[in-house]
Amino acid sequence: MTDFNIDAPREGAVFRAGEWRDVRGATGGLARVLVARWTDAAVTEAVDVSHAGHDGLHCVALTLRGASVRFVSNGQVVCDGRVPAGMIQITAPGTPVSATFHTAYDVLHLFVPQGVLAKCYEARFGQPHDGPIVLDDPRAFADPTVERLAQALALAHANDATVSHMFCESVTTAIVARLVAQHFSQSIMARIMSGKSPSSSPSRQLSPLPQWRLRRAIEFIDAHLSRPLTLEEIARSVGLTRMYFAAQFRRATGVRPQEFVQRRRVELAQEILRREQCSVLDVAMHCGFRSQAHFTTVFKRFVGRPPLVWRNSAVTAS
């Protein structure tokens, strides 16, 4: 992502935070997403910051430039080292966090009230969520769609510190909607793989793929990751047409079948990279990628780092 320089802010939808994760006294009753920019391009010594957590607000951190940082959430180290631009980290309400920045940093913080999460959930799944929504996975991850949206917001703010509330609300709503859909899709998949029924999030227009068909499709995908897979093949394995299967699969998981297949290929590649000393090309071929370049591109999109960089960090961590 591009690094942006900003002057002292004027009043607008995005404000430059004077303190880390500062929301200017906003409470959990906030009706819209509040956006703060935490940035310093001239760090000469380590910057230690901490926050006790916001009551009723999720904090979504979007990294605009790479930085060396140690981040701790609720007493657990989430990352300690170089964090590339484009990484995302979500802190649930009331979660104490701290960080030490060793280099220059530029981060957008989105403070998301429960009402916005609820609207995004209902728009995605066609019915209200039962109870408060909590996105409680503190691990950092990458998402190219969210990265581009964050970049657009940062660029607009760099060009005009008084960027309109309408533009800001549109972009932040798109980001939150994406994160909500991903969170619940992953929760559904975890339940299915553990033999439980998926949580109820059906659309009124089309029912999700039945659990038995979904499990069979996943088993078929996992058994054939080493070769090219077509949508027709997967649909045929569960006795459905290509279009109907794709629609029901997306209703059940929140992602397109092709995206799910790529994710499973990357997960398999991570297992091989972690336990075996084979070349990146061999891993790419074993996991069904058409070339090493294609594998590297897809791997970085899902994981946030190239395969070799990820392998080295995984080996060091173990």
TrEMBL record:
GO molecular function, one term: sequence-specific DNA binding
Name the UniProt record assigns to this protein: AraC-like DNA-binding protein
Keywords: DNA-binding, Transcription, Transcription regulation
SUPFAM superfamilies associated with the record: Homeodomain-like
Record PROSITE patterns: HTH_ARAC_FAMILY_1, HTH_ARAC_FAMILY_2
InterPro entries: AraC_XylS_family_regulators, Homeodomain-like_sf, HTH_AraC, HTH_AraC-typ_CS
HTH araC/xylS-type domain mapped to chain residues: 215-313
Protein origin, superkingdom: Bacteria
A Pfam short name: HTH_18
